[in-house]
Write a structure and sequence with these properties.
Distance between the termini: 58 Å
Number of helices: 15
Radius of gyration: 25 Å
Number of strands: 0
Largest sheet: none
Order of helices and strands: HHHHHHHHHHHHHHH
Strand content: under 5%
Length: 372
């Protein structure tokens, strides 16, 4: 080594150590402030979904402020109507829950008794303790308490969405005043915002289609409380890999033990869930989003574990959205684009296209899909 060349052998390990230490501090801070961050993140995502109709109304000639109010009134009215229908359905389900638990208890106790007669070692006494109807029924007040907390959080999220939408009216002017050279920052922010809004719109639309198709399938098969299972399918569709399977378990079990149902109807409903999620999740969603807006299977499952550990059930619901937000943010800057490529599926992406922004690659993929 020349005497004039500086010794940089210790810089990379030091930077790596500092980066890992900063990551630990950030994760610990997010876990400690989960009760504050979760409503804030939900409000940000909902506000981003609400901005396209606001911009559309503004292009029709309405002022931005009037467009925001009109969008909020329409969305608020639809959500209020859905909430009333869902509350009525959930109340009926809560009243019918003790009878459902008893039927489920008798059904599975008889099933394991039959297995024991066939020679399988099944402790039915232990099973009776696990499926104690009184213990299961005692969890209902706690569930209602959680629903009350969810209602309070929903009010907070709604207020945050309202203030965020009005804050965006003069956000660009604030950036121009705050930065000396705002053009590069605004360009990267616009690219990030466009790609994230496209992802959120497609994911929300796919989840809405999933909920509607599940509602139709439940009506056709004859399972009770179809609206409840449709909303559950809509919400859990945001959880990768296992969300759709979890959403199918309650209605299938209910249909299995109900007097008008049975094994054949339960299998038909299971096949309907499987078909809906296969078509929408493996055919429609990749075509609408494009390859560049995907995650590798390992990263999707790892994000479910990590965000679930940090934020709980809300983190599991938002795991894909949070990871995709991180990926889009990393892809919007040339120096961190390589990390975004590591998070992606890496299928059929030409190497010469790797340094181009995500929005440009997605636009060309969408044109190719429409051309096919």
């Amino acid at each position: 080594m020349s005497q004039h060349e500086p010794d940089t052998s210790g810089i990379i390990p030091l930077n790596l150590t500092l980066g890992l230490a900063a990551l630990v501090v950030i994760v610990a801070g997010m876990k400690a402030g989960a009760s504050l961050l979760v409503p804030l993140m939900l409000a940000v995502f909902i506000a981003l979904v609400c901005t396209p109709p606001v911009q559309w109304l503004n292009r029709l000639g309405l002022s931005l402020r009037l467009a925001v109010w009109l969008t909020l009134l329409v969305i608020g009215g639809l959500l209020s109507l859905l909430g009333l229908l869902l509350a009525n359905s959930f109340g009926t389900f809560t009243e019918a829950l003790p009878g459902i638990e008893e039927k489920l208890y008798d059904y599975y106790l008889g099933l394991f008794d039959g297995l024991a007669k066939m020679g399988l070692a099944v402790d039915t006494g232990r099973l009776a303790e696990l499926l104690d109807v009184e213990q299961l029924g005692s969890s209902v007040p706690g569930l209602l308490g959680e629903l009350g907390n969810l209602l309070f959080q929903s009010v907070m999220v709604s207020l945050l969405v309202i203030f965020m939408l009005f804050e965006t009216l003069n956000f660009r002017d604030k950036i121009y005043r705050a930065l000396r050279n705002p053009a590069p920052s605004l360009e990267r922010f616009n690219e990030f915002s466009r790609t994230l809004k496209r992802y959120l719109a497609v994911k929300t639309l796919i989840s809405l289609m999933t909920g509607v198709l599940v509602w139709v399938a439940c009506l056709l098969v004859g399972v009770d409380f179809p609206l409840l299972w449709a909303v559950l399918a809509f919400a859990l569709n945001f959880i990768p890999n296992i969300g759709s399977a979890i959403a199918a378990i309650p209605p299938v079990i209910l249909l299995l033990v109900s007097p008008g149902g049975g094994l054949v109807d339960a299998l038909l409903l299971s096949a309907a869930y499987l078909g809906i999620n296969f078509v929408l999740g493996n055919i429609v969603e990749p075509r609408w989003m494009g390859r560049a807006l995907g995650l590798s299977t390992f990263i999707a499952f790892l994000s479910l574990v990590v965000w679930g550990w940090i934020f709980g059930i809300a983190g599991m619901l938002l795991s894909v959205l949070l990871t995709m937000t991180l990926k889009i943010a990393l892809d919007s800057h040339p120096q961190t684009r390589w990390i975004a490529h590591l998070l992606g599926p890496g299928d059929d992406q030409p190497l010469e296209e790797a340094d181009r922004p995500l929005s440009e690659r997605n636009g060309e993929e969408g044109e190719e899909g429409r051309g096919e």
